[in-house]
Design a protein that fits this description.
By secondary structure, this protein is of the alpha/beta class. The chain contains 13 helices and 14 strands. Strand 7, helix 7 and strand 8 form a beta-alpha-beta unit. This is UDP-glucuronosyltransferase.
């Protein structure tokens, strides 16, 4: 039997959680056992209980979110020692040796496991989903160098080496797509996307809008624009296991006035990806998972203000490779569709040239 791969994830960002789930499913498809562990299960109770409050604050104010970004700190003070000790004991008993960490906040725990397993050759890889350091890695500085760093977009090289495939399906031809744009704020609904909805509505641009809370939905103010609203199940938490003790993709549904929403998850990729595949563009901050979606679907990224330096690097990379355009530049061109069709063709070419991270792992 092939050796189990331990995937270390977190729910503080769906940009970490969703790629982790994709990797788990793809490894299993190749006959490689793979388990996901969530950082939130290592936190003390108070830290875990504060997460929804921080999430709402970051959603309500991009200024607050950016302050939080600058205050990112070592996770050690938030960890519950009993939870960590129990996990390390379990890993040792099972002889876990292969690890993929998608967030740097697992580094203190991995360092302790290295000490415990000093006589064992561990294969620990830090998977870098952005074009430069994210806070979860940068707070540990040179400690990251103790492990193998696997970059999708190596810093300073201005290229895509490899990607995490979201789907095996070919991109939908641009002319066959719905005349709509998907607009969102990443996993937590962060950024300036809400500020753009009114001006896009005034320009008769139809949107698929991702809502995060019920108050995000404004049927009346946009009733003539034929926008559609979609939502993740507000009761869902990424660190809660389902009935068969597995983690799910976010339960997702269209939200219509006066109708009950039926949230669905399951499948080999998130439900929102179907919307992305059939959209003319993604209007969003340039997060790491959004780059994966853009490349996998060949859907142009129309990027809003970045959330931190790593997203600024993402935007610069995508723009320099002709795979995206800033919202302001697109607006200056009167929201031209032909500009996006050129970007779509570039994305199709880039998608077929990019390596698949799974090849490196397996």
């Amino acid at each position: 039997m092939k050796e189990t791969v331990t995937i270390l994830s977190a729910g503080n960002s769906l940009g970490v959680y969703v790629p982790a789930k994709l990797l788990q499913l793809q490894l299993r498809d190749q006959g490689v056992p793979a388990d996901i562990f969530m950082l939130e299960h290592m936190y003390d109770q108070q830290t875990r209980e504060n997460i929804p409050r921080y999430r709402k604050a970051f959603h309500d104010s991009f200024t607050v979110a950016k302050m939080g970004y600058k205050m990112a700190k070592d996770s050690r003070n938030s960890l519950d020692e009993n939870n960590v000790a129990t996990l390390l004991h379990e890993w040792k008993l099972k002889g876990r040796r292969r690890f993929l960490a998608l967030t740097g906040f697992w580094i203190p725990i991995l360092q302790r496991y290295q000490e415990i397993m000093a006589s064992v050759d561990l294969d620990i890889r830090l998977i870098r989903l952005d074009a430069s350091d994210t806070p979860s890695f940068s707070v540990y500085g040179e400690a990251c160098d103790q492990f193998k760093n696997v970059w999708l977009y190596p810093v300073g090289e201005n290229r895509i080496i490899q990607t995490i495939a979201v789907s095996q399906e070919e991109p939908v031809p641009f002319q066959e797509r719905e005349k709509r744009y998907l607009i969102h704020g990443g996993g937590w609904g962060i950024g300036t996307y809400k500020d753009k909805i009114t001006e896009l509505t005034d320009s008769d641009i139809a949107l698929n809008i991702i809502a995060y809370y019920n108050e995000d939905i404004a049927y009346e103010s946009h009733k003539f624009a034929f926008h559609r609203y979609f939502m993740m199940d507000p009761s869902w938490s990424p660190w809660q296991r389902n009935a068969v003790d597995e983690f799910d993709f976010p339960p997702f549904a269209e939200v219509s006035q006066g109708e009950a929403s039926v949230f669905e998850s399951g499948g080999s990729y998130p439900k929102v990806f179907e919307l992305i595949r059939h959209s003319l563009g993604i209007i969003s901050k340039p997060g790491g998972a959004t780059l994966l979606d853009s490349l996998a679907s060949a859907t142009p990224l129309i990027f809003l203000e970045p959330f931190g330096d790593h997203e600024r690097s993402n935007a610069q990379l995508w723009e320099s490779l002709g795979l995206g355009i800033s919202y302001d530049a697109w607006k200056e061109q009167d929201y031209a569709v032909n500009v996006l069709e050129d970007i779509h063709r570039n994305l199709c070419n880039a998608k077929h040239k990019a390596g698949n991270l799974m090849s490196d792992i397996t």
